[in-house]
Amino acid sequence: VGKIKEALSEVTLLGEDTRNNRVLTTALNPLVSDISLLKEKYGPKRIGVVIGTSTSGISDGEKAIRFHLDQGKFPENYHYRKQEIS
Q1: pTM higher than 0.85, yes or no?
Q2: What sign results for the dihedral spanned by CA atoms 17, 56, 31, 81?
Q3: What local confidence, expressed as pLDDT, does residue 69 receive?
Q4: Is the pLDDT of residue 3 over 90?
Q5: Are 83 and 60 in contact (CB under 8 A)?
Q6: How far apart are CA 43 and CA 63, in angstroms?
Q7: Most CB atoms closer than 10 Å: which of 16, 19, 51, 85?
Q8: What is the C-alpha separation between 74 and 80, in angstroms, rounded?
Q9: Which residues contact 47 (CB under 8 A, 6 or more apart)?
Q10: Domain boundaries, given as residue ranges, for the chain
Q11: How far is Cα 31 from Cα 28, in angstroms, rounded to an integer?
Q12: Cα radius of gyration rounded to whole Å, the chain
C-alpha cells in the first residue's frame, strides 16, 4: 500500500474540499499543460481525462462517525455526499 508523503493541493470548489479530491487534484495538476495542448490541437470535445481514487477519504468518514457516536451529531463540516460514489 502506497502512502502520499507530499502536501496535497487544495480544492477551491465550495463543498468539494475532501482528501479524495485533493489526491485527484494533486495527481492532475502536473498534466494540466499537456491537457491544454491537446485541447488546442483536437478541441475540448474530442479529448477525455479519466481519473479516480478508491478509499483515500475513508478516514474522514470514520472520524465523523466517531464524532457522531460521542456528540450525537455529525461535525458541521461533514457531509455524507462527499463520500458517495458519484
Answers
A1: no
A2: negative
A3: 97
A4: no
A5: yes
A6: 43
A7: 19
A8: 10
A9: 35, 38, 39
A10: 19-75
A11: 5
A12: 16
